[in-house]
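REQUEST ID: PR-0412
SUBMITTED BY: lab tech R.K.
PRIORITY: routine
TASK: structure prediction, single protein chain
INPUT:
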Amino acid sequence: LRRKTAIQLTNEMKRYLASVGLANVRFHVDVKETDPNQYGSDDVNFFFSANPGQPLSLLSDIASGGEMSRFLLAFKVILAQLDGPSTFIFDEIDTGVSGKVSSGITSLLQRLSLNHQVFCITHQPLVAAGADHHFLVSKHVENELTFTKVSCLRNKEQRQKELAQLAGGEFADANLYAASLLDQQAA
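STATUS: complete
OUTPUT:
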């Protein structure tokens, strides 16, 4: 016995995907009934294509790490509308993306944070500047042991300094860029 389930990407989901550089995504869910086991009685496979002319293939086989992260972020923003309050932790969801895509990721994270708690570890100044609160995570080695320290950045000057570091260091241009990101966020 075989049952197929098609998931139509809504216009809202398509807009979210386009904002993170995935305007041409096609997605399909295939559900097959199986004999009941410890995982249930369905075999579920997710099929994905990110580019025109590319056939649908298993999501786990074809999607790059960045494509998968961005697709799942957009998908989670949609699903979170059905969830109660919860906490989301994203670790470098923005690795290897352009400024335009970083901006789209920032918008989706901000949308998600309207009704949920969101923690995002990032090295992108554009994404970091979008946060309501900033923490600096640093590591140091002492007596051959590595320690991690989390410091709350409490004022604009501390935030600007760390954003400038993410943007490329203490150069005047990096500081101007960091200040402009914080000013845009405050507007």
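NOTES: The two ends are 57 Å apart (CA to CA).
REVIEWED BY: pending
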